[in-house]
TrEMBL record:
Subcellular location, record wording: Membrane
Listed name of the protein: PRA1 family protein
Entry membrane topology: Multi-pass membrane protein
Protein keywords: Membrane, Transmembrane, Transmembrane helix
InterPro entries: Prenylated_rab_accept_PRA1, UBA, UBA-like_sf
Family: Belongs to the PRA1 family.
Pfam families (alphabetical): PRA1 (PF03208), UBA (PF00627)
Organism of provenance: Chrysochromulina tobinii
């Protein structure tokens, strides 16, 4: 569950050895800690951005690819936080240039943030099962797509998407793999096979 031994012992002592109550206590403590730090979404974003590689390494050595598929997979895995930052900057600059995109970006962020923070419970009168996170995110994605269509911004969003994809794939194709990136790719493939 990701709790330290000390936390687990303290929770068991506080609940007189009741494992179920200790687990509930630990989960409640984790939720409270995440809420104090900005919520689970902020915690996930920070954990993702901690994987950022140094920019000097990111721009270090470019070579013509010999094994294109392996190089792209390795670099996409190893530099994913750097790519997210670059794409975020491209989207931010594009949104600042067009107010319509800025409104669209704000509404999309609000939809996705609401979907990730909502606990999924439906009103009692609907008598439906709670929605899982992936279901809520799909609904937010559909809502964002409808906003793009309603604001007639499809062409602009596609241009920004193609620009981001081109920058990321161009770098992933020509950036020579490092020993660290190969090791990260190897670890990831072993974890997937388990």
């Amino acid at each position: 569950m990701g709790f330290s031994v000390v936390e687990a012992r303290l929770a068991l002592e506080a609940t007189s050895g009741n494992v179920e109550r200790a687990a509930e206590l630990l989960k409640a403590h984790r939720r409270e800690r995440e809420r104090a730090q900005g919520g689970p979404l902020v915690a996930r974003i920070n954990a993702f951005l901690r994987n950022q590689q140094p920019w000097s390494e990111f721009f270090d050595k470019f070579l013509w690819p010999e094994h294109l598929h392996e190089r792209i997979e390795t670099n996409l895995l190893y530099y994913r936080a750097n790519y997210a930052i670059i794409c975020g900057a491209i989207v931010g600059i594009s949104a600042l240039q067009q107010p319509k995109l800025l409104a669209l970006l704000g509404a999309s962020i609000a939809l996705h943030y609401g979907a990730s923070e909502w606990d999924g419970r439906m009103p009692a009168e609907l008598n439906m099962a709670p929605l899982r996170l992936n279901q809520r995110l799909v609904i937010a994605l559909i809502g964002s797509s409808l906003l793009v269509n309603w604001l007639d911004a499809t062409a602009t969003v596609m241009r920004v998407s193609v620009l981001c994809a081109g920058v990321v794939l161009g770098h992933a194709s020509f950036r020579a793999r490092t020993l660290n990136s190969r090791w990260a790719y190897f670890k990831s493939s072993v974890e997937k096979s388990d």
